[in-house]
From TrEMBL:
It comes from Novacetimonas pomaceti. It comes from the Bacteria. SUPFAM superfamilies: KorB DNA-binding domain-like (SSF109709), ParB/Sulfiredoxin (SSF110849). This is Chromosome partitioning protein ParB. Pfam families: ParB_N, RepB.
Length: 296
């Protein structure tokens, strides 16, 4: 992708932004975005590309549909935006990449927003008040973020593990981790499926590390360029299949018409009968019948 990020944030009129790749939003999650922006403001600008027209510049959205629609819902006329240089195809691909990434990592992003608020100067008490979370929970999340415990954070957000257990696992060595799981079981904090899920998570954390990596096995990240290349390769493969199918169809048509003409010859039928070849597959008979109908 050839986009270059802008060096400053511009205030862009909301009414001049077009969403190229709109998606249906979950009403509950959208309401959370609106309420969050209403309480603490926009935490991250949207990204757009400028489109020059006769009656003034317009903009195509690269990423940030939820934030843009929340501003519209709140009646705002302008929104902070990074303006990049990108064509329409780049914008569509970037939107696709963002959607995929959010579907896979949304729960983790939500908790990492707490870390982003701290970096912008908010105290634990401020974050707790603005998010509606307890100070103890916010402090524990920041502690896990500082330790890079993405797997544990994901389990906490998904409700698979209490944050108190996650903290004990993060602070413990290998024997201590097993002891933390045992204490959680004895105190009814982890039972049944949650206990099994916690054991699997601990094993994955031991083998693969604390961070949640991409599911790709080659260690590379998904970019707009790689998505375009994959799309082009798939398109070329399907075109090749179509060409092969057309060749096969033409050859079958030739064979069918040739057989139809041969079977119309009495001498040919006598030869087949002398060899005991009096029957043919029903599919072939049907094809020959259709050819004879077209000729007649």
């Amino acid at each position: 992708m050839s986009a270059r990020p802008a060096q400053r944030v511009e205030m862009v009129p909301v009414e001049r932004i077009t969403i190229l790749n709109p998606r249906i939003r979950n009403p509950r999650l959208f309401r959370e975005i609106v309420d969050s922006i209403a309480r603490i403001g926009l935490k991250r600008p949207i990204t757009v590309t400028r489109r020059a027209e006769a009656d003034g510049p317009f903009y195509d959205l690269v990423c940030g549909q939820g934030r843009l629609e929340a501003f519209r819902e709140l009646g705002e006329t302008e929104i902070p935006a990074l303006v990049v240089n990108a064509d329409m195809e780049d914008c569509l691909v970037a939107s696709l990449v963002e959607n995929c990434a959010r579907r896979q990592h949304r729960s983790l992003d939500l908790l990492q927003d707490i870390g982003g608020m701290r970096q912008r100067g908010h105290t634990v008490a401020d974050i707790a008040r603005q998010t509606g979370l307890s100070g103890e929970f916010v402090g524990a999340v920041l502690r896990l973020l500082d330790k890079g415990e993405q797997r544990l954070l994901q389990a906490v957000e998904a409700g698979q593990m209490p944050i108190s257990v996650a903290i004990k696992i993060a602070d413990a060595d290998e024997p201590g981790v097993q002891l933390a799981l045992q204490h959680a079981y004895e105190n009814n904090l982890l039972r049944g499926r949650k206990l099994l899920a916690a054991k699997r998570l601990v094993e994955q954390r031991k083998r693969r590390g604390k961070h949640v990596r991409s599911s790709r096995t080659d260690g590379t990240t998904v970019s707009s360029a790689s998505l375009l290349n994959a799309y082009q390769e798939e398109t070329d493969r399907k075109r090749l299949l179509v060409r092969r199918a057309e060749v096969a169809k033409s050859r079958l048509t030739f064979v069918t018409e040739a057989l139809s003409k041969l079977f119309a010859e009495r001498a040919m039928m006598e030869i087949l009968e002398s060899e005991g070849l009096r029957d043919m597959p029903q599919e072939l008979r049907d094809c020959l019948s259709s050819v004879e109908e077209r000729v007649s």
